[in-house]
Design brief:
The protein is of the alpha/beta class. The chain has helices at residues 125-134, 147-150, 175-198, 212-222, 242-250, 270-282, 312-318, 359-362, 375-379, 386-394, 398-403, 414-418, 425-446, and strands at residues 24-26, 32-36, 46-47, 54-55, 60-63, 72-73, 78-87, 93-101, 161-165, 203-208, 228-233, 265-269, 288-294, 302-307, 326-331, 338-339, 353-358. The chain has 3 domains: 30-101, OB fold (Dihydrolipoamide Acetyltransferase, E2P), CATH 2.40.50; 113-282, NADH-ubiquinone oxidoreductase 51kDa subunit (Rossmann fold); 375-446, no CATH class. It has 13 helices and 17 strands. The strands form 4 sheets. It has a 6-stranded mixed β-sheet. Strands 2-8-7-4 form a 4-stranded antiparallel β-sheet, with no helix packed on it. Strand 15 and strand 16 (338-339) form a beta hairpin.
Length: 448
């Protein structure tokens, strides 16, 4: 019997028919590239190259700025033209490396074979973790948390199970689904590598029931490896959230303010695990990712393998250009993604998809007064009270928001999706969470 998480959740239409089963297509090389240095949670990476320097594909160009940070490698060969700032999808400045792309010359140490799946290596756990860290791998499910940190539990915490996120519950997006279909063998080897790194003997691959072909393929592959199983899950959003997936797969609930390791779990997305395979088995750093470009009016919706630093305008051109009736472009999916100021920005580790919404669907509906129906409370997968948190944010009640566990919010949008009054609950909660988070960090810094 298929399981799911037990608190909250909603059922938006998945709208995956536009790009599902579209084969992964490589995006071409741009003439110029801008490679952001803040492509992950934590401190931005620090550039280790200079203007005028020649680099090859895979060469380290920025070193992690701390333990919770990630290395960045050149996705192209060419010449560094400057180190400056660029603008991200939401108009914020960030440091970046600019380069002229002059070809596709790779470091000789990288195995570029594409047809042969390399058998599992015999590295020790520490060596696996070091390779993951060196390769700059971060969570590609959306959070972009440096993966090596997850593989090094704090003292007193022990991992018992690796939970593999193949859910892809966000509507419209299909890149993880297609990755499982095309790179299933490599993902299984990546799972084994992470099991070895964590010194555990159990892994569960969670996949929602709207991907029966992925369930079948991954089940067949997993049946050949001791300790790996596939768990088909009922459709419910946001099942791809770490805490919701843990509940669905092993029936353990992560306490408020705690991390998955508190209940013995480590969660990694299938795209992250594929990156682990490439880093450990082929010495290839994380320089690209598969992203979905989709929408009801997109001419060539599909799943594109895009190197970081490639202008998103190039990716959109491959998909047939911006549809004429576009009212809004979403970075990610419609639930957790955010509207972009412009697509004139570079691809990076955070961009899992581009969704073009028709103008008729991108307009906010007329707001009415809250009717105290409680639907947002019932829908919240974290057991919060979104109506209250949004009111507190409106009135700048930061201490009260912290007391009501605002930092537990995963910004899934279930509250706003289910609100009959069309209130912008998520907008206010996000704003309040950012403010409270800043207050907490300042307090922690002052107490050091």
């Amino acid at each position: 019997m298929k399981s799911t998480f037990r608190i909250g959740g909603v059922h938006p239409h998945d709208n995956k028919q536009y790009s599902v089963h579209q084969p992964i297509t490589e995006c071409g090389l741009p003439a110029k590239a801008i490679i952001p240095l803040a492509q992950h949670i934590g401190a931005p990476a620090q550039a280790v190259v200079e203007k005028g320097q020649k680099v090859k594909v895979g060469e380290l160009i920025a070193k992690a700025g701390g333990f919770v940070s990630a290395n960045i490698h050149s996705p192209f060969s060419g010449t560094i033209t400057k180190i400056d700032t660029t603008i991200d999808a939401w108009g914020m400045k960030m440091p970046a490396i600019f380069m002229d792309v002059e070809g596709d010359e790779w470091l000789e140490s990288i195995d570029r074979s594409t047809t042969l799946v390399k058998e599992l290596c015999n590295l020790e756990p520490k060596a696996i973790i070091e390779k993951v860290q060196e390769a700059g791998i971060v969570g590609l499910g959306g959070a972009c948390f440096p993966t090596h940190v997850k593989l090094m539990p704090p003292p007193g915490k022990v991992a018992e199970v690796l939970i593999v996120n193949g859910v892809e519950c966000e509507p419209y997006l299909t890149c993880d689904h297609q990755l499982m279909l095309e790179k299933g063998e490599e993902i299984i080897i990546g799972i084994q590598l992470l099991m070895r790194a964590l010194n555990i003997h159990k892994a569960i691959i969670g996949i929602e029931a709207n991907k029966p072909d992925a369930i079948e393929k991954m089940s067949t592959l997993a049946s050949r490896v001791l300790g790996i199983e596939v768990k088909p899950l009922k459709l419910k959003y946001p099942q791809g959230g770490e805490k919701q997936l843990i509940d669905a797969c092993i029936r353990r609930q992560v306490p408020s303010g705690a991390l998955p390791i508190e209940v013995g779990a480590v969660v990694d997305n299938v795209a992250t695990i594929y990156a682990v395979y490439e880093a450990v088995q082929k010495n290839k750093p994380l320089i690209s990712r598969v992203m979905t470009v989709t929408g009801k009016s997109v001419a060539k919706p599909g799943n594109y393998d895009v190197r970081f630093g490639t202008p998103l305008t190039d990716v959109v051109a491959m998909a047939g250009g911006v549809p004429e009736n576009t009212g809004k472009v979403i970075c990610g999916g419609p639930m957790m993604g955010r509207a972009m100021n412009s697509i004139d920005m570079p691809a990076n580790k955070r961009v899992s998809g581009l969704l073009f919404l028709p103008e008729a669907e991108s307009m906010r509906q007329e707001l009415t007064n809250c009717v105290r129906c409680g639907k947002c409370v019932n829908a919240c997968p974290m057991g919060l009270e979104p109506w209250l948190l949004s009111k507190q944010a409106w009135h700048s009640m930061w201490e009260e928001m912290e007391d009501h566990n605002i930092m537990d919010c995963i910004e899934c949008g279930c509250c706003q999706f289910t609100c009959p009054s069309h209130l912008p609950l998520l907008d206010y909660v996000r704003m309040g969470k950012a403010k409270v988070g800043g207050i907490i960090r300042a307090r922690q810094a002052a107490n050091k």
